[in-house]
Structure formats: C-alpha cells, structure tokens
Amino acid sequence: MTTLNQEFDRLAQSVNQTLSIHQQQLQLQQAQIKSLTQLLHSCRNSSGLDAHCLSAMERLTTLLDRHQHENERICGLLDSTLIQAKDARDLTINPSGELATTLKLELAELAQRLGVDRLKLSTASHTLKLWSKMMTAHPDPDGYQWQVPSSKRGLGFYHQTRLQIVGTKTVSLTTGSPLN
User: Fold this and answer.
1) Which of 80, 89, 129, 156 is deepest in the core (most CB within 10 A)?
2) DSSP alpha helix (H) spans, 45-106
C-alpha cells in the first residue's frame, strides 16, 4: 500500500469516527429534548400555573421543537455524509471529466449481472466494436458503463473467469443525498 493510500485511509477513519461521535451526541440530544418536551406538555395541563409561566413554557416548547427539527436535519446530513465517506474510495473521474463511482467485477460476475452468456461476453471483450454492441444490447440495471478490458493477459481460463472489468457511473455529491 502506498503512503498516499495509507494517509487516505487514516483520514477517512478519522472523519468517519468524528462524524459517528457527532451523530451519537445529536441522537442523545434528541432523546433528551423529546423527554423534556413531554414533561413540559404534561406540566402545562396541571392547575395552579399563572399565564406568565404558561407563556414561558410555550416559548420553551417551541424552541425545543425547532432545535429537534434542526437536529433531525443534521442527523440526516450526517447519515448521507457517512455513506458518502464510505463510498469515497470508489470515486474517480470518468473520461468526460465528471465525478463517478466505480465498481470492479470479474467477467463471470458481470455476465450474470447483465444476464448474458459468459463466453459471449468474453468473446466481445476482445474487440471494441463487439463490446459496444454487447453493452448497448444489455445495459447495466444500475446505470454503470462497463469499460472494455484493457488487459489481454492469458486468453484462456484467466480471461474467461478472473478478468476484472471496471464500470463507472456518474454521481453528484449534493447535500443530503447518498452516492448510490
């Protein structure tokens, strides 16, 4: 593993740990806010409280509700950020210059995924024209674009079963949406 990969892994673990801790703290705050709001609602119904006290309790309940909604929004963003952080190592730039996620499959796995015969897919992988026809006739269900295998190592058993094929799918990192 290169130094860059080690540094990337260390950074990813650190970010993931920090986000997880923050998410746990927000979830704890949400539980406390919910309990406090329930307590305030039950106290409001008891007799003997003057109008000023009821008004202060109403303002506090409103602030707690607003804070809880903000916490829920932040937890949602943290969830999607954790998903994106998990998938970050699979990100690349596709030939069009767009951000894309990658998926590597062996030839047999790709054939099964696309619902085609493994031998036909293996044959198609030898030429760009046949590969393009095969990919047009059998598009990926998740929208991945499968690249022609660049390695022609061993045209025998290895090529038919162990050859890794890379697929890319354009993604956009928008706030609040996961990669997949």
Assistant:
1) 80
2) 51-87
* Domain limits for position 36: 3-89
Do residues 115 and 61 both lie within one domain?
Answer: no
> Under DSSP, is residue 100 helix (H, G, I), strand (E, B) or coil?
strand
61, 43 Cβ separation under 8 angstroms: no
Does the structure show a pLDDT above 70 at 88?
no
**What is the rounded CA–CA span in Å between residue 133 and residue 24?**
50
Domain count, the chain: 2
In a 3-state reduction of DSSP, which class is residue 97?
coil
Confidence of residue 133 (pLDDT cuts 50, 70, 90): very high
Task: Specify burial of residue 146 (Cβ count, 10 A radius: 0-12, 13-18, 19+).
Answer: buried
Model pTM score: 0.47
**Whether residue 85 sits in one domain with residue 8:** yes
Q: What are the strands, taking DSSP E only, across the chain?
A: 91-93, 99-106, 145-146, 164-170
Percent of the chain with pLDDT over 90: 10
Pick from 32, 42, 43, 41: nearest CA to 61: 41
